[in-house]
Q: What sequence folds into this?
């Protein structure tokens, strides 16, 4: 009787009005958190506003000014370089660590704990720590290099040629932990029977990783890549904490430029226009990444 009742209830259809009513609080919250700020930002991007008083409608003037602003394209270039380099470094590091921590060794749980530790360090604290560590003469990095005979007076953050790459390295150090845990969990879910069959067929460790592990964890790996691109594209704390966009604008990425334009120069309209343009670019980049991965998976 319970079975018949359960099967009968399974055929019932909930009225659309009831579904919408139940979902209304969540939809209202989403609207307040996402839709309203988006609309406000779009309105601001077409206006002139200095942080107080009424907004003055200016049409496309802010977008024209931004597209004629050399600093915007320099920041865009820095952002793309930083986001791509940091994403590649983070995902590659996370994948290597995940493989190392899922080999069935007795210390796997200890490795996972140790490699997760950088994630609990606040971004500002990491920025201050590494800024001090790479200082000429007094920094621990330069002290080690001096001990090895490679010089101890390198101004890593004072040179436009090296400053951005130092920040990329710090971003990799601080951001690898969460992708590592996600990828390790995905590898743990691969059935052991697959590896056993591969070993019986003579497949070595690299062949197992390439032809079995990677295809089976592709959905998680794709998600990690997409999320890291978004997060690194929107990075602010590490860059601002270490260089504030210097030297000579070599580490000024779009979030830093937006902050400078809005809160230092008081031009919130131009800052909003930059934010809209960068959001459109980021959406396009994320879409291309996801579609490219999906097409490759379908081809396989």
A:
């Amino acid at each position: 009787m319970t079975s018949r009742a359960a099967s009968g209830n399974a055929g019932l259809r909930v009225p659309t009005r009831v579904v919408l009513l139940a979902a209304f609080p969540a939809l209202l919250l989403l609207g307040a958190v996402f839709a309203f700020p988006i609309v406000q930002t779009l309105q601001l991007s077409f206006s002139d506003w200095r942080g107080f008083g009424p907004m003055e409608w200016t049409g496309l003037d802010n977008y024209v000014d931004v597209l004629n602003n050399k600093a915007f394209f320099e920041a865009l270039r820095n952002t793309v370089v930083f986001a791509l380099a940091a994403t590649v470094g983070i995902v590659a590091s996370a994948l290597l660590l995940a493989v190392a921590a899922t080999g069935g060794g007795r210390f796997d749980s200890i490795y996972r704990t140790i490699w997760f530790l950088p994630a609990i360090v606040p971004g500002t604290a990491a920025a201050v720590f590494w800024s001090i560590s790479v200082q000429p003469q007094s920094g621990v990095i330069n002290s080690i290099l001096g001990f090895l005979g490679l010089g101890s007076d390198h101004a890593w953050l004072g040179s436009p040629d090296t400053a951005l790459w130092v920040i990329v390295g710090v971003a990799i150090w601080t951001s690898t932990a969460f992708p590592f845990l996600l990828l390790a969990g995905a590898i743990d879910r691969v059935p052991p029977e697959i590896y056993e069959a591969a070993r019986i067929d003579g497949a070595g460790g690299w062949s197992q990783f390439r032809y079995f592990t990677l295809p089976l964890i592709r959905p998680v790996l794709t998600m990690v890549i997409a999320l890291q691109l978004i997060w690194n594209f929107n990075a602010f704390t590490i860059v601002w904490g270490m260089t504030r966009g210097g030297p000579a604008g070599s580490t000024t990425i779009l979030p830093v430029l937006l902050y400078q334009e809005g809160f230092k120069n008081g031009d919130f309209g131009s800052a909003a226009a930059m934010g809209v343009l960068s959001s459109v670019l980021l959406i396009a980049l994320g879409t291309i990444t996801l579609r490219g991965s999906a097409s490759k998976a379908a081809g396989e």
